[in-house]
Amino acid sequence: MFENFHWIVDVVSSIRWNDVLDILIVSVIIYYLLKFLIGTRGWQILIGIFLILSVWLIARILDLRTVLWIFDNLWSVGIFLIIVLFQPELRRGLAKLGETGLFKSLFLSRKKAVDEVIRAATFLAERKIGALIVFERSIDLDNYTEGCVKINADVSIELLISIFIPQTPLHDGAVIIRDQKIATARCFLPLTINPNIPQNIGTRHRAGIGISEETDAVALIVSEERGEISLAVDGKLYRNLDSITLKQKLMDLLEVNPSTRYEKLKKKIQKFLDRFRTGKWKS
Q1: Is residue 176 part of a domain?
Q2: Most confident of 24-33, 85-94, 108-117, 143-152
Q3: Position 140 in a domain
Q4: Is the pLDDT higher at 25 or at 159?
Q5: Within this chain, do residues 49 and 136 fall inside the same structural domain, yes or no?
Q6: Which domain holds residue 119?
Q7: Alpha helices in the chain (DSSP H)
Q8: Which class for 100: exposed (0-12), middle (13-18), buried (19 or more C-beta within 10 A)?
Q9: Mean pLDDT of the 210-228 span
Q10: How many CB atoms within 10 Å of residue 60?
């Protein structure tokens, strides 16, 4: 037992900082590659390749010589087959990367989602149509999506307006946005029991405050009585926001600006280094 422990210690102590960096870079590349392929024809091809590799692994374990001979002759042309099969995806991915960059594309998609929500909220507020839109952050909202209607569609002003128009099947309840997509609609959220909430606050606002108390989600509420837009964050309600203030708050809260994310990451790294220097990281 102690020999195994010493072996683990030796392995961990032999890891260099550039080994960790190497693993992180490869992990990021694999993550974005899979994210790019999911939902495309290339994803189906990738699944087929994994199945072929599984057959090769089984043949290697069972020592199936004929099957292994076939695979040994296929490996030499396998790389060219992959390039041919993935040609459309490779061309599209390189073009997208060249136009915007990998991380810039992510920020643009987040900004587009925020812009579409603000446009929809402004449209609904002008016509005094109630709405409740919840942005998921680090805490997932799976516990609140039971019984909801799954949408899984890109965020757009047209879709949001269609959902909240009165007398439509989905207008009652909340919309949950996850990863720049409308994940679910017609969700019923827990109401706040805070006694300090003003009496003129309705059920929609209480639900927005409630979800922000139990999670780190950001809830946007459009009042059908007053036609005002509010934000619920950490159990607090920010009322009667104009479009400029609303956009600034959402971009900061959802870390749309690269500078905001950079500053947050910088603070986390600095906090970790401070704890490391003082020895508090051990606790």
Answers
A1: yes
A2: 143-152
A3: yes
A4: 159
A5: no
A6: 115-256
A7: 2-13, 17-37, 41-62, 65-85, 87-100, 102-126, 157-164, 203-214, 243-253, 258-278
A8: middle
A9: 92
A10: 12
Residues 6+ away with beta carbon under 8 Å from 111: 251, 256
Give the total number of structural domains in the chain.
Answer: 2
Please report the pLDDT score of residue 85 as a whole number: 63
Closest to 220 measured CA to CA, from 112, 138, 114: 114
Do the domain assignments include residue 271? no
Identify whether residues 78 and 140 lie together within a single domain.
no
- Residue 119 and residue 235 share a domain: yes
Q: Is residue 263, in this structure, part of any structural domain at all?
A: no
Decide: 229 and 245 in contact? Cβ < 8 Å.
no
Q: Do residues 214 and 162 share a domain?
A: yes
Residue 69: what pLDDT? 80
Can you tell me the distance from the alpha carbon of 131 to that of 220, in angstroms, rounded to the nearest whole number? 8
Question: Do 240 and 127 belong together in one domain?
Answer: yes
Burial class from Cβ neighbours inside 10 Å (0-12, 13-18, 19+) for residue 108 reads middle
Cβ atoms of 121 and 230 closer than 8 Å: no
Residues 130 and 252 in one domain: yes
In the three-class reduction of DSSP (H, G, I as helix; E, B as strand; rest coil), residue 229 is classed as: strand
8-38 residues labelled b (16+ CB within 10 A) or e (exposed): eeeeeeeeeeeeeeeeeeeeeeeebeeebbe
Q: Are 231 and 219 in contact (CB under 8 A)?
A: yes
User: What integer is the mean pLDDT of 66-95?
Assistant: 67
pLDDT of residue 187: 93
- Please provide residue 221's backbone torsions phi and psi, each rounded to the nearest 5 degrees: -120, 130
| Residue 218 φ then ψ, to 5° | -110, 125
Domain CATH code at residue 138: 3.40.1700.10
Place of tokens 């990738």: 46
